Fold:
Amino acid sequence: MGIFGNREELRSVDTDAISVHPAIAGKLPDAGEFLLRQLSFLHEDSLRELAAEIARVRHPNGSIPRRNLKAIGLRDWKSGPLTHLVWMTAKDMIVVGVWATLTLSRRDSRQFEKTVVAIAEEQGIAAAATWTMLSRPDGNLHIESLASQLEDSWSESLGLIRNGEIIKSFEKWRR
Structure:
C-alpha cells in the first residue's frame, strides 16, 4: 500500500458520468466562486456579468472543467475576464494528478494519472476526486489536502495578475 509496503489494490470504477459525492464537492473550493471573491472590489454590475459567464462554462455537476475553457486563451482580453479563470486554473491538472497518484507505484501511477486528468478535463475536479476516492479506498488520500493545494495554486496565480489586466479584460470584452 505505502511506499515500502504491499502494492495498493485499485478498484475498477466507470469513468463515464461520475456522480460527484456531495461530501467531496463540499470540501473542494469552487474556482468560479474563488475568482469572484478575489475580484470583489469590482463594481457589482461587472461582478454580475462575470458570474453569468462563469455559470455559462459550468458542467451540470457544478464544476468548471478545462474542456469548457478551451476556447479561451491566456491573456485573451477579447474573451473577457474568463481569461483570468483560465490563468488561475492553469495548474489544476498537475495538482489533481499528483494528489491522485500519491504513493502509487510507477507502473500504476501513469495510467491512473491519465484517467484522473481526463475526468477532470471533461467533468471537473470534483468528479476526478470522487473517482479517485472510489478507485483507491485504501489510498489514504485526504480531500482537504487537494483543496488546500488548489487554493494555494489559485492564490499564487492570481497574485501575478495586475489590476490593469483585469480592467483591460473587461474593457476589451465589452467592445
